[in-house]
Amino acid sequence: MSLSLKHITIGVLVVVFALAVQALAQKNELSGMLGRAFISDQRIQGAPTSDPDLRFGNGLTFEVNYARQLRTLGRNFFSLALEVPFVVNPDEDLHAALPIRIPEQYVSYFVTPSARINLFAGQGISPWVSLGGGFGHFAASSTLLFGGPNTGTTGTTTGALQAGFGLDVRVFTHFSLRAEGRDFWSGVPQLHVNTGKNHQNNIFAGAGAVWHF
Q: What mean pLDDT do residues 109-135 have?
């Protein structure tokens, strides 16, 4: 009888320990997103009125994001997490009707540590909002849109503010699907043309998967 009680006790302790470890472990998240970047056209100062705009392509964009849940509130109605989205747009094409000396394209990187609040934390469907700030870097191509080398400054590092929203849908214990939109408000890249702007909105819309561990 004592042996059976011992086995039951050990079994209960193992289950409690496993659940505790699982609950603790799932405070972490690692996510991967794939989507597009959207940047509004910009008016080139002094350009003819027939086609004066600098236009941006919708570059294929990637995001890797680590998050750590800090606390839950209201019986898991809210959760507060610290997240670090790292977003890369490897090929942002540029277009202009005028034969002006702008780069063919540029690469952009954003790293913006942020606070994220989830509703219905840990439930099947959880909408969220995010706000934070960090920096962005733009690296222009070494060639120009209409041919020739880009001999000007190609790299620009700037501060960036991030605001985002999204929806997580739990599909397995450790995995969720996520759709999101984020706006990185930053300085402008060195494009060697005057648009009269000091800042621009770099909007990312994407979807992917989240691993809870």
A: 95
